[in-house]
Amino acid sequence: MNRRIEIYDTTLRDGSQGEGVNFSLQDKLLVARKLDELGVDYIEGGYPYSNPKDAEFFWEIRHLPLRHAQICAFGMTRRRNCRVEDDPGLRALLASEAPVITIVGKTWDLHVSQVLGVSLDENLRMIRETIGYLRSRGRRVFYDAEHFFDGLLANREYALETLRVAEEAGAQCIILCDTNGGSLPERIAEYVRIARQAVNTPLGIHCHNDSDVAVANSLAAVDAGVTQVQGTINGIGERCGNADLISIIANLALKKGYDVLQPGSLRKLTEVSRYVYETANMNYRNNQPFVGISAFAHKGGMHVHAVVRNSATYEHIDPALVGNERRILISELSGRSSIAAKANRLQIPLDENLLRRILERVCELENQGYEFEAAEASFDLLVRKMAGVYQPWFERIHYHVTVEADSAGRLVSEATIKLRVRGQIEHVVAEGDGPVNALDAALRKALEPYYPTLKQMHLLDYKVRVVNSRAGTAARVRVVIESGDGRDIWGTVGVSENIIEASWQALVDSFEYKLFREADSRSGVVEVSK
Q1: 3 state DSSP class of 286
Q2: How far apart are the C-alpha atoms of 296 and 322, rounded to whole Å?
Q3: For the segment 372-407, what is each residue's pLDDT rounded down to a tens digit?
Q4: pLDDT surpassing 80 at residue 312
């Protein structure tokens, strides 16, 4: 059997220290449930002594039935000149009732003298007494050897002695931390082997990404003998982030053959990655390996032609293994193979004449300022229209948008739209934070009574670019909207001299694409309009 590697997720603690990341209590509980569904072994919930939210998390998580993961509380060695029984941080850790407690301690003598301000011997006592006390209270204890790689370089014997003390005190896993993220893979592997010779306790690895090699460092550590890997979903975290568990898990399982997660869990990687991005209110990283929407995207006609024949020609794995999908990008560089591949996914039969006309239309529209690489949904609708299998879900009669400023300078945007939906006239008005938001709100108000699944859809990103800047304020603009419904992500595009009209085009395409996808998933085929 392949060697089992434990996955320890610290998204909710270390990941939340990233700039712009702020999880609410409910966010943390929802992410924890998602991580458990993914099959991670340990979920670090936070430091209960640091803030009321983390303390409350440990209270609430007790009532959340988890199928596999164990919850870990994070804390520090006892304070200097303080008995372990009197240390408020340790009392908070015990009060959390977390079955596993992760204690971070100093390994680098520089930190012992200049940060803690204690003697080297006192630091060893702090490590020994803290771990021993928590073990005596019936808790499993993991020991995070902070700055291990820098500490070993500076004072080899002392760094190793901190590990021995942690082992003697009862630590059940010792995690070697590249806290400053400055090490390279060969050094990581060498120092892991040195640590293995010094202690018998299972080892883990915790890398930061300051040198952009945190994933490579983690993989090197596993090959050198560690049995636990710590990191965060999508690599979020302080400074340059933590090691990205998404890439680590995929590489360990698919490239190196290690046993990770639970059976069938790999296919949830893309879903979990996007869930964390959305919960943290962060933009997706399109080029993120394995799970990014561009990870298996093909643009050049030659590449598409080859991938259609044999996906291994330009794909290192089957995207379905990690829950992702292949995308064929459409642009003026596309050949007929690209058009045909896209149409095949829609199950629309195309002859050579239709392929030629679609390609000509794409080139014509891109010359006007359209761009379909980030607007696949708009291209899908274009193919449906030109193939004669498009039937509108609603028809615009007219819309009107106003933006007013009151005497206090507050802006109020209001959109009025009149649509024909299933033979009925819907005339509605809605307000929004801006004209596009008001249009979106009005569309939802008119359409959701007929199509309730639109409630699942929300706007992820909105981009505007001037196409012909020399025209000044009369220039044509391109609006690209990215939307999602928790399962899929799609882009739509609109182009006009009027930014409101360009936005309307992209919005309508987004709504219609969602409705077509729902219909296709129910029928399994594209319905030809009657």
Answers
A1: coil
A2: 11
A3: 777 889 988 998 898 888 889 999 999 999 998 877
A4: no
Q: Which of 101, 99, 98 is nearest to 141 (CA)?
A: 101
Q: How far apart are CA 377 and CA 372, in angstroms?
A: 8
Q: Name the more confident of 412 and 57.
A: 57
- Token couple for 355: 């392929």
- Can you give the length of the chain in residues? 530
CA-CA distance, 251 to 266, in Å (whole number)? 11
Dist CA 169 CA 62 (whole Å): 28
pTM over 0.90: no
46: helix, coil or strand? strand
Over residues 120-146, mean pLDDT: 96
Neighbours of 470 (CB within 10 A): 7
- For 319, the token pair is 């995207």
3-state DSSP assignment of residue 438 = helix
3-state secondary structure 449-482: CCCHHHHHCEEEEEEEEECCHHHHHHCCEEEEEE
For residue 397, the 8-state DSSP code is E
Amino acid at 245: L
Element housing 29 (H / E): helix 25-38
User: Quick one: pLDDT at residue 221?
Assistant: 98
| Distance in angstroms (rounded) separating the CA atoms of residues 94 and 138 | 10
Of residues 121, 137, 125, the one with CA closest to residue 73? 137
Mean pLDDT of 83-106: 95
Phi-psi region of 225 (alpha: psi -120 to 50; beta: other; left: phi over 0): left
Which pLDDT tens digit goes with each residue over 480-498? 998 988 778 898 999 999 9
Helix (H, G, I), strand (E, B) or coil at 79: coil
User: If pLDDT is split at 50, 70 and 90, which confidence band does 470 have?
Assistant: low
Taking the C-alpha atoms of residue 68 and residue 38, their distance in angstroms, rounded to an integer, is 9
Please report how the helices 269-279 and 25-38 are oriented relative to each other, as an axis angle in degrees rounded to 10: 170
Between CA 137 and CA 205 the distance in angstroms is 26
